[in-house]
Design a protein that fits this description.
heterotetramer; A: alpha/beta; Transcription Regulator spoIIAA; B: alpha+beta; Heat Shock Protein 90; 3 helices; binds adenosine-5'-diphosphate
């Protein structure tokens, strides 16, 4: 199984995307490129629906940190919604639960 | 019980899911919990990612899965550059960076973690999860 | 493309699902169909069952998965007794017996099938599925 | 995943069982022993619900052939119900579709 971005809703100053599948060394670029493309037009808040994200590791986390750096300057934030336990645990371990909004 | 499974994989990202699937079946056979299996998948992938990104190994790397009654030992061996572990710094979690999280994640998720590496002489990552 | 994955498994029934899972991920990576993957799982298991039941191998056997653009080649090698293939008879499907179906099933499910075996000198089963 | 026999209904001269999971070299004995036990009391027709049988190979097929031999003498039969395509295919290849009743 690979990765897909199944939904992108851009609205005012927030963009919501849903990531489905495994965000690993083979697939993280799909997300990076999509988010870079979104932020090219306008720096907005990013909300990521992780309901169907089954796997993420440091390659994926690296992408999210890079994106946060980009939008933080304009006081925007990244929210993580519906993440599974194992993914939440990874965010806790790496301290990302303190710099992302985990819902 | 002390059984060894050995897997040789090409140093290419598209085969990392094979490593993940192996640890997943083996840990499942050992009746480990779902959440533990998820952690094992992340830990092994971090080690394999490093082989592919950093080791500059020529063709293949090897994974040993050693199944014991009370623990699963996983060793990831590459025959690449190695590195100077003396220069390794743990990530500063207050100031997150895009990279530098891999080994730290393995260490956090596993019960034991060891690294043997020398500049120019390959790397062996050894991780243990207790049942 | 020509990539090789090598798996060494203990000669014990409880690890056969590891062989099955490997062929399943690898074939899935090659975008083979679900039904084909089911057949591959049966074919590899028949060969592994035989190693465990008949070969009298001491400890481990090896499986090579060779991924090519147009086909998947799987070789199951054991270092056990081997057998006299000259004495092999295809099963009589009109008069089914409890045993003797394994090699026939592999041959039926795969696109190519070869066996190299000598009394006392191990067995290599080679099966090929075209993409 | 392993194997389970989830249902056994004995009624008149038929016994219906449901096999769930993988019937392989590790698990075929579970089915063999259960069927032997059933037939010890009385030789009956056997109906196997394969709706949730995800895998079978020659070790499992061997069990079914052995059982058929036992009950055929008394003109009983084995019926296979709801088998998945891949399992049906295996029954066709091995000629079992001619000696079992495949529903
Ligand atoms: N198998 C390896 N071969 C060579 N160098 C490695 C290997 N594994 C880790 N390293 C070195 O250790 C460093 C830290 O690795 P890690 O914590 O996984 O973070 P990252 O891979 O993001 O840099 C890497 O940057 C690399 O220099
Ligand atoms: N790896 C092996 N080592 C030794 N003998 C083997 C091996 N594979 C197959 N054989 C021989 O070939 C015969 C036919 O195998 P098969 O068609 O799978 O049926 P079965 O295993 O039910 O007898 C076996 O009975 C055995 O004598």
């Amino acid at each position: 199984m690979s990765l897909e971005i199944t939904e992108i809703i851009e609205k005012d100053d927030i963009c919501k995307i849903s990531i489905v599948g495994e965000m690993d060394i083979n697939s993280y670029l799909i997300v990076k490129e999509k988010l870079d493309e979104i932020l090219e037009n306008k720096i907005v808040n990013i909300e990521i629906n992780c309901e169907n994200l089954s796997y993420i590791d440091s390659t994926g986390i690296g992408v999210l940190i890079g994106i946060l750096k980009k939008i933080k300057k304009e006081e925007k934030q990244i929210s993580i919604v519906n993440a599974k336990n194992n993914i939440k645990r990874l965010f806790n371990i790496t301290g990302l639960d303190k710099i992302f909004v985990i819902k | 019980m002390n059984e060894k499974i050995n897997l040789k994989l090409p140093c290419k990202p598209e085969f990392i899911n094979v490593a993940r699937m192996n640890i997943s079946v083996i840990a499942n056979n050992m009746k480990m919990d779902y959440e533990v299996i998820q952690d094992l998948k992340v830990a092994i992938s971090e080690a394999c990612n490093n082989v592919i990104i950093h080791s500059d190994s020529e063709s293949h790397y090897e994974i040993d899965f050693i199944v014991k009654r009370e623990k699963l030992v996983v060793e990831i061996n590459d025959f690449g550059n190695g590195f100077d572990f003396g220069n390794y710094n743990e990530p500063d979690l207050e100031n997150p960076k895009e990279s530098g999280l891999g080994l730290f994640i393995i260490d956090s998720l596993m019960d034991e973690f060891e690294i043997e590496t020398k500049n120019g002489n390959g790397t062996k990552i050894r991780m243990i999860k207790n049942v």
